[in-house]
C-alpha cells in the first residue's frame, strides 16, 4: 500500500511465515547461533529498524508485456555492496520477498506505532536475523560475481558498440567481415489491416514442426481464424540429409491438407525458417549455417524454397505456392504489426535470441534502391564473435562456449538466451562449491552433469513467494543438501545471471531504437516492439527488469511492448498476406499506370499523327478545320549577325508588362545589351476597354523612355503579344481570343499593332515604328538563333506548350510566294482536339479536361504542360486513395482541392537528391499525412505522368525535325532547337527523357537543344532587327 509522498508502507512479518505462505527454514544447529546471540545482544536498532515502518517503494507490481514504457523509473531496491551498481545502477537484485505488502484490511494505519510485546520483540529479532543473514549472503555473492554486474555506463558503451556493428553489417564494404550480419528480409511493409485471404504457414525451427492454416478477414475487426497441428521432427531427420528433411516437411504438409480437404486448393504458403539465411527476394532463402542442433547435410548454401518445392513436386499429390520465407523474429514483428501498425521491431528472448526492425532502404547497401523501408534480421546472437565483448565475458561464459556445439560463435546469445542461462548458473554453483562457498563444499554427480540445471529452474527459484522453497527442492534433487543460506545464495546467483541477460538485451534493443529515432529525424520516438520467447514470457522478473533498464538507457523513446501470440507461425501467414496484398495492389496500380506507358510503336504513331496534322494546317483547303493551325509568323529569316541598332521591345503576356531597350551591335564582337522595367497591369485595366488597356501600355512606354532618356527619335519596336493571333504580316496580328484573365473590350478581331499605333498617336508625345508582332515561341527561336545559326526550331514547355520552326515557303499555302523560308507558329497545344489522341488519353486526362476553363480544347497541351501535370497526378491520387492504396483510404480536404498539387511539386518530389522524408514533408505541406509507402507511390505516380509528358513532347518534336529534313531532301539533318519554359528548365528528368525520345524517333536527325535566356524580350528585339534589315534590303 502507498503512504504519504509516494512512499510505500510495509510492515515486516510477525512470524517466521511472514504472511507469505512460505516457511522460513530454521537455521541448522550451531551454524549461526553466535551471530544470532551477538545481534540479539547488540539490539541498539530496536524495534524501529527491521520491525517495520515506512520505506521507499521498490519495483511495484510487475509490468505486463503490453504496458507502454513512458517514464523513467525510481531507483529500485537497496544499494548492495561489491557490485558497482548491480544488475544496473538502479535496481539491485534481489528484494527481501519475506516482507510482502500488507493488505489494507489487515492494517489500515500501517505507519502508526504499535506497543511492543515480548512475543513481538522475539519475532522482530528472528526477522532481523533472517534479513541480516540474507544480506550477508547477497554481499558475498555480489562480490564473487562482480564481473556479471554491469553498470549503466557499461551498458551505454555496449549500446554504442552494437550500433557500430549494425552500421558495419549494413555496409557493402564491411558486411563480409561483420559479425552482426544485418540480413535483408525483403519484407518491405508491415500489415495495414486490410489483409485478407486463406493461407498456410509452416514453422520449422525447433524439435517440432508446426503447420497452420490462417484465414484473415479484414471486414470485421481484423478477424483471424487459425488452426494448427504439430508434427515431430525425429533426431535421425534433423541429422540426416537435406532431402530427408524436406521430404518429411512435404509429407507433413500433405497430411495437414488431406485432413482439412484442401489438397485441391493452391493456397499461398508462408515458410518460417528460423535459421540464418541470405535472401535476395522474399521467396528465396539460402541457408548460411544450421543452428539449434540441426545438421541436415546438403542444405547449407542451398535455397530452402527450391528444396521444399522439389520435395512437394516429387510427391505430386498437391501443389503449393511458397510466397514468402521469414525468420521467426520477423514473424513475431508481423504478427504484432497486424494488431498495432506502429510495430516496427520484432524481438525474441527465448531458447535463442534475435531482433529485427524496419530500416530505411537507403542505408541497406546490399539491396538495390533507396526508397522505402525493409525489415532487417539483425542476427544479433553473433554480436561479440569478433572479440568486441571480451571485456565483459566471464570465465563461466568462456566455459559455456567451449562446451557448446559451435565454439566461438553466437557469443552474445550464449550470455543472454534461455538455452544457456541455466547452464551458466550450474557452472557458477560448481565453482563456488569447489571453493567451499556453497553446500559445505559438497559436489554431486548431478551437479556436475551438463543440462541438469535448466533455465526453467532459474525462473522457479526467482519467483517472489515460493522462490526459496523451489530452490530447496531443486538443489535437493541435485543431491547437495542445501542450507537456508545456500538457498539464498543460489537465488541471488540466478538473479545476477538473468539480470545481466535482461540488461544486455536492453542495451542492444536500445541501439536499435536510437537508430530508428535517428532515421526518422525525430527528437522522441514512439514505437511498438513485438516480443516472443519463453524467457521473456515465463521468467517472473525478466520483462520488468528489461523494461526498466531500457527506459533508463533510452529515455527519449516511448516504447510499447506487445506480446506475440503464435508469433512465428501466424507471422509467416501475415508476411504472406502482406505480400499478397502488396502484389494485388501492385497489380492494380500497374494496371492503372500502364495506360501512361507509351511504347516506341505508340510514340511513332503519335509522331505520324502530328505530321499529318501539320500538313492539314499548312494547306489552304484544310486549314480552317485543322486542329494544329500552323500560323504563319511572317518571320522570314533568322539573324545572320549583321543586325545592328537600338530597338524597343514590349512583352505582354500576363499581369505584368515589360518594356525593354535592346542594343544590338554587329561586327567581330557581337553584343546584345538589355535594359528593362516591369509595370503592373491592374485588374480593372485588364478587364476594361481596349482603349484603356493600350493607353496604359503607352503610358508605361512613355515612363520608360523618360527613365532611359531616349524620348525623341522614332525607334523600331517589336511587340511580344502572347495571345492567339492570326497574322497577316510581320507587323499585323489579329487577336483571336483573350486568355490568362484578360477581357478588354473591342480587341478581339482587331489588329493589336494598329491598336498600339492609335494609342501612341493619342498620346502625342513620341512616335514608334511598330515593326513586328511576335509570338513568344518565335521569340525563343530567334534568341537562340542569334547565338547558334543552326537553330531553326523554337519550343516552349512551361505553364503551356508550343513550337515553331522554319518552313519552306512553297509549303505555306496561306501566304503568297514560294521562295525562301517562313517561321510557322504551330500552336500545337490543340493537337488532338479533333479526337486523334483519344486512344492514348486516360480517364484522368478526361477529368482534367472536363473541369478546365476550356473543355475540349488544347488537349495535347493538357497532357504535357506544367499547368496540368499536377492536376493529373491529383486525380490519380484520389482514385488510389478511394481504392485504399494511399493515405489509409482517407481522402483529405486538401486532396479534393483542384489545383493544389502544383507541377513544381512534381519537380521537387522527383528530385534524385530528395530522400523520402523530404517527400513526406512536401506532402505534409499539402495537408497529406503520408507513410513511407505512400511517399513511394506518390513519387511513382509523379514519375509516370511526367515521363509520358516528356515522351509525347519528344514525339511532337521528332515530327517537326523530320519534316525539316525531308523538306530539304537530306539523308541527315543537323539542327538546333531553342527551348524555354519552367517545366523543361526545372524538372529533374523531363529534358533528358524528351531528348532521348527525339533521338529514338528521328534517328536521321542530330538534334541539339539550346536553352533560351530571356527569349520573349530579346527575341522580339531580334525579330525587329531582322525585319528592319530585310526591309532595308528590299528597298535597296
Automatic annotation (TrEMBL):
Domain (Hexokinase N-terminal): residue spans on this chain: 141-338, 589-786
Uppermost EC category: transferase
Pathway, per record: Carbohydrate degradation; glycolysis; D-glyceraldehyde 3-phosphate and glycerone phosphate from D-glucose: step 1/4; Carbohydrate metabolism; hexose metabolism
Residue segments, region Disordered: 1-115
Biased composition (Basic and acidic residues): 94-109
Pfam family, one: Hexokinase_1
Key words of the record: ATP-binding, Cytoplasm, Glycolysis, Kinase, Membrane, Mitochondrion, Nucleotide-binding, Repeat, Transferase
One function term, GO molecular function aspect: ATP binding
UniProt family annotation: Belongs to the hexokinase family.
Name of this protein: hexokinase
Taxon lineage: Eukaryota, Metazoa, Chordata, Craniata, Vertebrata
Gene: HK1
